[in-house]
Design brief:
- InterPro entries: Auxin_biosynth/cation_transpt, CHP04046_FMN-dependent, FAD/NAD-bd_sf.
- Pfam families: Pyr_redox_3 (PF13738).
- This protein is of the alpha/beta class.
- Helices cover 23% and strands 22% of the residues.
- Strands 1, 2, 5, 6, 7, 8, 21 and 22 form an 8-stranded mixed β-sheet that branches. Strands 10-19-11-12-15 form a 5-stranded parallel β-sheet. Strands 16-17-18 form a 3-stranded antiparallel β-sheet, with no helix packed on it.
- Helix 1 packs parallel to helix 9.
- The N terminus and C terminus are likely disordered.
Length: 435
């Protein structure tokens, strides 16, 4: 048997389906394949569900109510369905899933390449036993779409004395050097990290973008519960205004911390947080912002009120008994003169010793050597089904609906992919076919 390039023994297996990734998407897929009696293996670079522990900060909580945590054959059944699990609770809950159906899981095994040939696919991986090559009729890529944190190239030009990290590296306020902190990005992660630092008494500067926001609770119920009842999470992406462009939208910022509440950046500002517009460039200790602060705050509040108005219309149309409607009114406005002065910021003068980048992620599918990607490196598909027979993607935001990026929607997407896959895969017992 020849040696692999790594110097370890190369093996080859035959399996009907390879599922890459053992997060909630990969495990949900495995559950359906188990039900269908389809031979498969789930390959995971680390351990099942590890990202919930490895890439979330200490005070992290879900922003969706616990009742939305539903995977095939497995649902949250704890005492607080309308609450929000913290990081450890999510890890425990998801960690209990594999034991309910015993997936054919191979952990600590990183897939290094996926290629196609006339008979199917070749999946090469590196694990504790060295390099293994698997031949498969179908492959489900369930590694999600958040692989590499986005950091602008010019960040390298900032003064090396400034500690820089991404949202996936942030742990807690005490893990950062003493001094003020600049958080860049006002999506869900950026807004919550800014709050975490603010509540710890740190001086926080927040550079905000175009992220919208939503009320935590409105007219007696969680807004996301209203929206689910209204069918918003089940509406296919193609039916939303702008169609597939919805996949590029930033999620609304809100938090499940301390039982759940709104994140109001204006309130933070009134309490001492320093808000800035869009950060565009920097060098040394000098940063430059665009004068977009007022517009961004107004836009986020407009979305907040628009969602509330949609709920109002639903309540009226359905005749639901609920508390009276309300409208958010700004509690703080940026001073125009001060806003202009803050277009330039000297990190040293402001006492800023750390910068937390929370401006999103980009996908990394360099190991997938099959032509199914658009010009941005994102897979082209219809609800996870690509134009290449036997190749599927799962776990992507807006894969089919707004709910696709949540536990609630992943279950349905996994069922769709598994059903489509079962029509084309001839299940066969796994066997070694040599190398």
């Amino acid at each position: 048997m020849p040696e692999a390039s790594s110097g370890s023994t190369a093996e080859q297996e035959q399996v009907a389906v390879v599922v890459v990734g053992a997060g909630q998407a990969g495990l949900a897929t495995s559950w359906h394949l188990r039900q269908a009696g389809i031979d498969h293996v789930v390959l995971e670079a680390s351990t099942a569900g590890h990202e919930w522990a490895d890439t979330r900060w200490d005070s992290f909580t879900l922003v969706t109510p616990n009742w939305q945590c539903r995977l095939p054959g497995y649902a949250y059944d704890g005492p607080d369905p309308d609450g929000f699990m913290n990081r450890e609770e999510v890890v425990t809950w998801l960690g209990g899933y594999p034991a309910t159906f015993d997936p054919p899981l191979v952990e600590h095994t990183r897939v290094t390449s996926l290629t196609q040939d006339p008979d199917g696919f070749t999946v090469t991986s590196i694990g504790p036993d060295g390099e293994v090559t698997r031949r498969a009729e179908a492959v489900v890529v369930a590694t999600g779409g958040y692989h590499i944190p986005v950091v602008p190239a010019w960040a390298l030009a900032l003064d090396p004395s400034v500690h820089q990290l991404t949202a996936s590296d942030y742990q807690n306020p005490a893990s950062l050097p003493e001094g003020a902190v600049l958080v860049v990005g006002s999506g869900q992660s950026g807004a919550q990290i800014a709050e975490d630092l603010h509540l710890a008494g740190r001086q926080v500067h927040l550079a905000i973008g175009d992220a919208p926001r939503v009320a935590r609770t409105y007219r007696g119920r969680d807004s996301m519960t209203w929206l689910a009842e209204m069918g918003l999470y089940d509406t296919p992406v193609a039916q939303y205004p702008g169609g597939l462009a919805a996949r590029e939208k930033t999620n609304h910022y809100v938090t499940g911390r301390d039982g759940g509440h709104d994140i109001d950046l204006r309130r933070f500002a009134a309490d001492g947080m320093r808000l800035h517009g869009l950060l565009t460039e920097g060098s040394g200790t000098t940063l430059r912002f665009r004068p977009t602060l007022r517009r961004s705050l107004d836009s986020a509040d407009a979305v907040y009120n628009s969602i509330c108005a949609d709920i109002d219309r639903y309540i009226e149309a359905e005749g639901v008994q609920a508390p009276p409607p309300s409208r958010y009114e700004p509690v703080w406005q940026p001073d125009e003169n001060t806003d202009q002065e803050l277009l330039d910021l000297d990190l040293a003068e402001a006492g800023i010793t750390s910068v937390v980048w929370a401006i999103g992620y980009r996908p990394d599918y360099r190991w997938v050597e099959v032509g199914v990607f658009d010009g941005t490196g994102r897979p082209t598909h219809q609800r996870g089904v690509t134009a290449v027979r036997g190749l599927y993607f799962l776990g992507l935001p807006w894969l089919h609906t707004w709910g696709s990026g949540r536990f609630l929607g992943i279950a349905e997407d996994a069922e769709h992919v598994a059903t489509h896959l079962a029509r084309h895969v001839v299940a066969a017992p796994r066997a070694s076919v040599g190398s």
